[in-house]
Amino acid sequence: MTRALPAPVYGAAGLAALLAVLEAAPRLGLVDARFLPPASEILAELGGLLLTPGLWIALGETLRGWALGLAIAFVAAVAAGVLIDLVPGLRAASNSTIEFLRPIPSVALIPLATLLFGASLGSTLLLVVYASFWQVLIQVLYGVADVDTVARDTARSYGLGRWSYIRHLVWPTALPYVMTGVRLAAAVAFILAITAELVIGSPGLGLEIQTAQSGGAVPTVYALVVLTGLIGIAVNVGVRALERRVLAWHPSVRGTSQ
């Protein structure tokens, strides 16, 4: 019986095929090399950029905005979700407000962010927090609603305190949902961080891409885009690893690890 190859092997093969296409297309004249340089030229430009301190400063600014925004959104969403669950009637009262605010795209807040904070970290945080908050909050609400009714009644009959009720009943039930929200929010937060830097001009990789595009440095633009893609992959892998570690006790994670 043929043994299936590990998933990373297929991923590496797909990436190699993409690089081969990007290398061949401009060299065969299928696309204008002025607008799409060969992959080897893009990777060489990326290698050169990695040796410059300016790139690492910009990368640090992007990751700072991403991490701070995600952390703020996480704390606020978990607190709001638990509060909505604890206060009788608050879920019904807040449902229409949540459904009104949640579909508003974060990019629609760019004019407001520019007016309030200008081209600074504050603009990035406003967009990142707003987009990430809803991803986590919705999952928290699903999680707290999934607490077993019998367990709730038992906790009340035994006079379990509010903090003990949250710690021993609500949080373990909601945690898998919370981690799903964090995984979704991490990707959205990174996208919004780059978007804020591109459009508003906040310091970071997005601003570097905009500057290179304005200067006609096409290989640099593609190199920076490739770098953002690689960081996005690293973010996703890192959050998934964190999810598996945090939920090591959960049957769904134990089942996939066996």
Quaternary: single chain
**Beta content:** under 5%
Mean pLDDT: 87
Say which CATH homologous superfamily is assigned.
MetI-like
Can you tell me the overall shape? globular
CATH topology: MetI-like fold
Low-confidence stretches: none
CATH architecture: Orthogonal Bundle
CA-CA gap between termini: 20 Å
Helix-strand sequence: HHHHHHHHHHH
Can you count the beta strands?
A: 0
If you compute it from the alpha carbons, what radius of gyration comes out, rounded to the nearest whole angstrom?
23 Å
Number of helices: 11
Largest sheet: none
Computed structural class: mainly alpha
Q: Give the number of domains.
A: 1
Subcellular location: Cell membrane
Family: Belongs to the binding-protein-dependent transport system permease family.
Protein name: Nitrate ABC transporter permease
Keywords: Cell membrane, Membrane, Transmembrane, Transmembrane helix, Transport
Describe the structure.
It is found in: Cell membrane. Belongs to the binding-protein-dependent transport system permease family. Its main location: membrane. The chain crosses the membrane at residues 40-59, 66-87, 107-133, 174-200, 220-239. 79% of the residues lie in helices and 0% in strands. The chain is mainly alpha-helical and 258 residues long. The chain has a single domain, classed as MetI-like fold (Orthogonal Bundle), CATH 1.10.3720.10. The radius of gyration is 23 Å and the shape is globular. It starts with 6 loop residues before the first helix and ends with a helix.
